[in-house]
Amino acid sequence: MQFTAQQIATLIQGTIEGNPDVTISNVAKIEDAAEGFLSFVANPKYEEFLYNSKASIIIVNESLKLEKPVSPTLIRVKDAYSSFALLLEKYNEIKSKEGKTGIDPTAVVSATAQVGKDVYIGALSYIGDNVTIEDGARIYPGCYVGDNASIGKDTIIYAGVKIYDSCVVGSKVIIHSGTIIGSDGFGFAPQKDGTYRKIPQIGNVVIEDNVEIGSNTTIDRATMGSTIIRKGVKLDNLIQIAHNVEIGENTVIAAQTGISGSTKIGRNCVIGGQVGIVGHIQIADFTSINAQSGLAKSVTTPNTALTGSPAYDYKSSLKSQAIFRNLPDLQYKLSNLEKTVAELTALLSEQNISIKK
Fold first, then answer.
1. The pTM of the whole model exceeds 0.85
2. 138, 176, 243, 267: which is the annotated catalytic residue?
3. pLDDT digits over 189-198, tens only?
């Protein structure tokens, strides 16, 4: 597909500098882009590539001041990074409308399932009893959707995803390969003889609209009620979310994070990779947690930044790190001070001068 600079500028509400009729058919990083490619510059450290770029069209910030002339057509916008992301999103939407539809002959779809218009169900996928799949959803090969589950409009379920019975997936959700939604929560009651009795997990998982879930992430069903992923949440690969957890709107969580049962995370939180969060606590809105931190108690103040294990205030941590780096020098100074005091004490003692403590 080809697009002109004018079409792109109209889509992202930008201003053109150069030829509005120049066309592109592909995208690339600014340092790699050739003729016929679109690129963008958002970070000042990449501006140097702008002046020698062979790209046909480059999206830049309105605030960018050129140091010398450039040959590509520029499209100026308020935020080049966000505009480029929007452009890729629209491109994906166009591609999806041209993508596969229909049910592969090798897929198994229950007679009681309700399948909407323009749905794709790939080879060897299984759709259980009373499942609802809304218009435009795409379920790639090798997926499992259990009885009474529902898949929203324009949602994409990539190959090998397993969605257990009664789970609810909203509209425009993306779930990447290998992810499991609705497996049993980790609930076992200790017995007097040292064994454990399994506690039945009879709840479900609810995933609201516009959520994206990375590969090989697991989201456990609730013991009772629902494990809830609110709208706009973005989850990386290899994340474990336990039973009855709730994650607030537009929160983002990086890979290898583990969240224990019944913890409630607020909206617009940012959680780094390999963070461990204990169960039955609450995390306030707009909380930031640094990578590899361990959170053992509730965060009640919004806009808190935490780091370390156990996690504590980020600014206090930086001060502590500065002191820690200086410990060898402080130890040397303390040793010299102790030696000087000892010498002075011995000298005063020789002169029969007492020291009041």
1. no
2. 243
3. 999 999 999 9
